[in-house]
Amino acid sequence: MLISEPGLSEQFSFSRDEWNKIAYNDYNGAYGDHPANSWFVVFRAIFQSENLVTALPKVYCSIPTCQLSVIDNDTGEELPKIFQKVAPYVYKKNDKGYTFVAHARTIDFPLAGGKFRLRLIGDFNPLPWPNNDMLITDFDLRELKGYYIPNEKSILFRYSVKPTSDILSSIQVSTSKPNVYIKLQVLNNEVEEASSIGKGFLVLPSFIFGKDESLKRARSGSKDKKGSVKSPVHTAEPDENGPKVNYIIQAIVLQNSWPLSASDWKHVETLKAQQMEELKVFTNRPQSSKSSVSPSPAASTTSLGAKQSAGKKSGRDRSKEKVTSKPSSAKVNEEKPHYVLRFVANGDDSSNVKVEVDTSRRDQIRSIKQAWEQAQPGRAAKAAESRQKFLDENLVRRIEDEEVVETVEVTPSPNPDDREIQTPIIEPLSLEPPPRPPPTMILKPIDKEPYMVECYSSPRVIDDEERERLLNDRMVELSEWRLHRKQVRQWRREQSQERNRLRDEQIEDCERLQEGVLNARKIADEPREMVRQRMLEAERLRQEALQALENETKDDAKGKKGKKSPKGSAKGKKGSGKGKK
User: Fold this and answer.
1) Which residues pair with 234 in a beta bridge?
2) pLDDT tens for residues 260-297?
3) Does residue 126 have a cis bond before it (omega within 30 degrees)?
4) In 3-state terms, what secondary structure has residue 25?
5) Which of 77, 248, 278, 565 could form a disulfide with 187 if both were Cys (CB 3.0 to 4.6 A apart)?
6) Is the pLDDT of residue 522 over 50?
7) The pTM is what?
8) H helices within 171-282, ranges in order?
9) How far apart are CA 210 and CA 244, in angstroms?
10) 10 Å Cβ neighbour count for 178?
11) Which letter does DSSP use for residue 221 in this model?
């Protein structure tokens, strides 16, 4: 009653005690062991709120780097924080609820398992509550690593996400260079839906990947004797009417903040050469199907799946996280520039989402080459043969202009008694690759003589006659230019006059419109004024009638008083006469 009508509380004596009243709910859980230099989600849950309530969430745990984030799922915006702590907020009823995410990272030392507590403090009950009245601590962690390859668009990586149902996820990105500015984006059909910017480390606490409505999922499986379904199999059928989704997780390097050393640039050149080899469709090596094409070493070198589970426990012996790693197709050299992408989904949704390298552009190029080959059989072989023939005919060995003189540098032999500490050599960093060494084979110079054309067959002598002819030609050009300038000036003058005429016409039109508006207003006001005058006249007549009636009433009252006074005097005279007798 007091919630629906807050004004009633002022009628009671206990209204002043409302400031001292508080309500809170506690949610307990546990987390497992984690290695050094890792990131993980402590818990995550979607809270619902039925009415307006001011609440403050607080997390109590022994992890110093633990942070709590609250995201409004309807708008995708994170609730404001004060000093990395969630500020009090008025929670309203919405469609998708609020996602509470607690995440932490380990730096130099591993982390032992422990317990945590989420306390939600508010003014009154009911406070926002999580779905199924519990916090989710069972997660599927996928760790994807890859090398950084500079490019024109400064794209660090692109991964495609293919969900078969609505997937609640958390995304984290870190780079081997700690002072790199990066921007993480979640794109749907190349339209940005969520983003986050950080320096060497950033987190997108929560994002819901919607299922692809264009695919109809059919479930089939074998039944046992009791009729229950076992080992369900999900199949997808295309639906042209449903909206299609194409989620891409993309990271961009900002402000050219990732320079590389000379050795790193050599590694980048090697990776680019491998990518060019992968784009070759027709080679001597055996062809492989699209499903068996190995991912690029720069973008999908490592793919780890870690499943964290902290389920229900009894007493102290609670089940800790179970980490199961899947074998990766390749390994990343952590001494080279690389990144780490961590994708966290709920443990129950591990089979409903697929995260892989976005190879759409590479597949498009390969399909175009295959289409060319199908349209013109033998096109690739002819092109390779033609190129090799051109190189054989035009390549020559490069001849240096200056003779190279070999010099021998004599260095003094080190004294074994002098023991000095060798300092590591720091390579300079650059945004541009180092210049390549001059090639040993170059194309031979082109003979330009067959393409040169003489202006005159014989030389011409400039005499007086030739000078006069040239002077006449220049005078003709000058007269033509003056005539053209005169025409341009005349045209500009006419254009100016035309603009002035149009301006005057516009002013006259505005004046006519204003005059018409005033006349229309006057015509519209005349009936109103007549009605107003009639009403004023009627009011004046009514007031006069009332005044006349009031005067008449006063006159009647005075007349009655005058008639009563003679009778009173006569009675007095009679009384005095009787007394005399």
Assistant:
1) 219
2) 999 999 999 999 999 998 888 876 544 443 333 334 44
3) yes
4) strand
5) 248
6) yes
7) 0.64
8) 262-279
9) 10
10) 9
11) E
Q: For 35-66, what is each residue's pLDDT tens digit? A: 999 999 999 999 999 888 999 999 999 999 99
User: 414: pLDDT confidence band, cut at 50, 70 and 90?
Assistant: low
Confidence label for 243 from pLDDT (cuts 50, 70 and 90): low
Residues 428, 264: contact at Cβ < 8 Å?
no
Chain position carrying tokens 């915006």:
77
* Residue in the block written with tokens 């990272």: 105
Residue 297, both tokens? 């070493």
Q: Is 34 exposed, middle or buried (0-12, 13-18, 19+ CB in 10 A)?
A: buried
Cα–Cα distance, 39 to 107 (Å, whole number): 9
User: Which of these, 62, 149, 577, 580, lies nearest to 338 by C-alpha position?
Assistant: 149
What CA–CA distance (Å, rounded) separates 230 from 40? Answer: 33
Backbone angles phi, psi at 222, to 5 degrees: -90, 145
Per-residue pLDDT of 203-240, as tens digits, reads 999 999 998 766 554 443 433 433 333 333 344 454 55
Question: Which backbone phi and psi does 328 adopt, to 5 degrees?
Answer: -95, 155
Residue 172, CB half-sphere, CA atoms under 13 Å: how many?
19
CB-based burial of residue 209 (10 Å sphere; 0-12 exposed, 13-18 middle, 19+ buried)? buried
Which structure tokens are listed for 302?
């490592």
Contacts of 66 (CB under 8 A, 6+ apart): 42, 59, 102, 103, 104, 116
> CA-CA distance, 98 to 329, in Å (whole number)?
38
What is d(CA 207, CA 76) in angstroms, rounded to the nearest whole number? 7
Place 444 in a pLDDT band, splitting at 50, 70 and 90. confident
Q: What DSSP string describes 410-466?
A: --PPPPTT---PPPPPPPPPBSSPPPPPPPSEEEPPP--GGG---S-SS-----HHH
**Residue 304, C-beta contacts closer than 8 angstroms, at least 6 positions apart:** 141, 142, 143, 144, 325, 326, 328
Contact 249, 415 (CB under 8 A): no
CA angle at residue 109 from 108 to 114, to 5 degrees?
A: 135
Question: pLDDT by residue (tens digit) across 136-154?
Answer: 999 999 999 999 999 999 9
